[in-house]
Amino acid sequence: MKVTIIGLGLIGGSIAKRLKEKKFASEVTGVDSNEQHQRLAIELDLVDSVHPLHEALKNADVVILAIPVDAAVKLLPKVLDGIQNETVVVDMGSTKESICKVADEHEKRRNFVATHPMAGTEHSGPNAAHSHLFDHKMAIICDKNNSADFALKVVDQLYAALNMKVIEMSSHEHDVHIAYVSHLSHITSFVLGETVLEKEKEVKHIFNMAGTGFASTVRLAKSSPAMWAPIFLENAKHVSDVLETYIQNLKNFKRLIDTNDAEGLTKSMENANKIREVIK
Amino acid sequence: MKVTIIGLGLIGGSIAKRLKEKKFASEVTGVDSNEQHQRLAIELDLVDSVHPLHEALKNADVVILAIPVDAAVKLLPKVLDGIQNETVVVDMGSTKESICKVADEHEKRRNFVATHPMAGTEHSGPNAAHSHLFDHKMAIICDKNNSADFALKVVDQLYAALNMKVIEMSSHEHDVHIAYVSHLSHITSFVLGETVLEKEKEVKHIFNMAGTGFASTVRLAKSSPAMWAPIFLENAKHVSDVLETYIQNLKNFKRLIDTNDAEGLTKSMENANKIREVIK
Predict the structure, then answer these.
(1) How far apart are CA A224 and CA A243, in angstroms?
(2) Exposure of A196 in the CB half-sphere (CA atoms within 13 A)
(3) What is d(CA B218, CA B179) in angstroms, rounded to the nearest whole number?
(4) Phi, psi for residue A161 in degrees, rounded to 5
(5) Which CATH architecture has domain B174-277?
(6) What pLDDT score was predicted for residue B37?
(7) Which residues of chain B lie closer than 8 angstroms to A192, CB-CB?
(8) pLDDT, tens digit, for every residue of A197-215?
(9) For residue A216, what pLDDT is reported?
(10) Maximum distance among all alpha carbons in chain A?
């Protein structure tokens, strides 16, 4: 299959590498507005060639959107305008309601499949790409009923090639749940990093005293702002709701400390311990 | 050397195992108020025998306190009362000011060394003990000038046997810094776990949607409340200060989302990204 990948960062680059290795793609064409990414993607042999968008769309069997979510929402109509009748368009964004809304207004809606492969690292760019990024992770397909069978079939093959397990839900459900289990985690981590750096002017102390606990909770603070700012804003309503709850719970925890309430703290932590049942 | 370990949980059990393996300890005597821990420590061959406190102190060359910090503060005078003139007492707690204050008032102050081995996992109890828990991690020795040379020498050997790197600082410095790089991480994680469980009544969704990002930020939420409630309360002032700053920074982040301020969000995350320079 001829595959066009728009966005040659961590996600797009890793998909390119994997699809070539698994021979899902006979040819991979890249599109990226960043010239350094274009050059790197060729040098690292992630793609066979790089072309401007309209050329890259012409003969593609599958077009994969792997750019920040706000850019994807804007670009999708143009992509759907430029494809053949049987071309499948699939996006990889971390928010799904807004892109599905835009897709729903397009006459080629059924060529499009909205997905979210839940994989990534705190690193970004073509240099961070590796072909096992998606192994055994979960991918979500949203609003399946609005996609054509031929498009869904290709996307199933695509995710099988990426070695991912696929689940389904509505784009609305996706955005509500993902605010809790992914977007909130990133915010807690970004703000943790910011707070510690603000307070600990002597970076040496952070380095010296950072046990594995700090390293794992702050890891996501290394993530790309260019990717995450659009995600938080596209999913602003749900993210803001969950952040409000988190802040209230933190205030409550602080009150328990300030009032020397050992019993209340223990109860609160015992509640949190129940996460053991879901995250082994 | 004859070693007595008070508290046979994750830390005490792991130390016992390692010190026997490295032949630092010719004999390990355990003390624990929990009968199940006593039995397990014998069954798992962590200790040679279990005795009541006063008996276990009598012939010990080294006494290691590995119990929750509030219990350690209370027990330390009794331990110092019960030892021989050349016995070394060392504690393993995550807060240092309060125990040093208690030690300073005792005539055997110089037999005592205040330390904090920065290692652990989210698991607890004798079953979680393993002899490589401390490998290549950092240990902090506090208020060194108040300990005798013979005691410091034994503690150096002890940490060499545990395969840890040792740094020094005052107990006050320790408690200020550790609030940022360890205690705050645990709170952000406990409250994250609590918040997600509160909102996501359908546990299935958490399981399905939990990418590696969530798993790593929430890992510490599995930690033992019996260990952590005393830590937060012993270090209440510093922990409360840092938590206040964290809450203010979260509110600021939320405001940036609510006002659709992409530039502000990006700037805030770019600041957080600087953590890359300290945590590789």
Answers:
(1) 20
(2) 37
(3) 18
(4) -65, -35
(5) Orthogonal Bundle (1.10)
(6) 95
(7) 184-185, 188, 246, 272
(8) 887 776 666 666 666 688 8
(9) 84
(10) 68
The Cα–Cα gap between B12 and B30 comes to: 9
Which segments of chain A belong to CATH 1.10.3660.10? 174-277
| CB pairs < 8 Å spanning A and B | 302
Amino acid letter, A273? N
pLDDT of residue B205: 67
Domain with CATH 3.40.50.720 in chain A: 2-170
How many whole angstroms from its chain centre is CA A189?
16
**CB pair distance less than 8 Å for B185 and A214:** yes
What fold is seen in the domain A2-170?
Answer: Rossmann fold (3.40.50)
Burial class, A209, CB count within 10 angstroms (exposed 0-12 / middle 13-18 / buried 19+): buried
Q: How far apart are CA A21 and CA B191, in angstroms?
A: 42
What ipTM was predicted for this assembly?
0.89
Amino acid letter for position A148: A
Range(s) within chain B of domains with CATH label 3.40.50.720: 2-169
Question: Residues B163, B166, B172, B175: is their CA dihedral positive or negative?
Answer: negative
Residues 86-125 of B with CB under 8 A from A: 118-120
* Assigned CATH class of B2-169: alpha beta
**A237 contacts chain B (CB < 8 A):** no
How confident is residue A23, by pLDDT bands cut at 50, 70 and 90? Answer: very high
List CB contacts (< 8 A) between B220 and chain A: 213, 216-217
**Beta pairing class for A138-142 and A112-118:** antiparallel
Question: Which ranges of chain A does DSSP label H, i.e. alpha helix?
Answer: 10-21, 35-43, 53-58, 69-82, 97-104, 149-161, 171-178, 184-199, 203-209, 212-218, 225-234, 236-258, 262-273
Contact A115, A2 (CB under 8 A): no
| Cα-to-chain-centroid distance, residue A192 | 21
* Interior angle at CA A46, CA A44 and CA A49, nearest 5: 105
- Distance (Å, rounded) from C-alpha A140 to C-alpha A130? 21
User: Does the pLDDT at position A33 exceed 80?
Assistant: yes
- The pTM of the full predicted model, rounded to 2 decimals, is 0.88
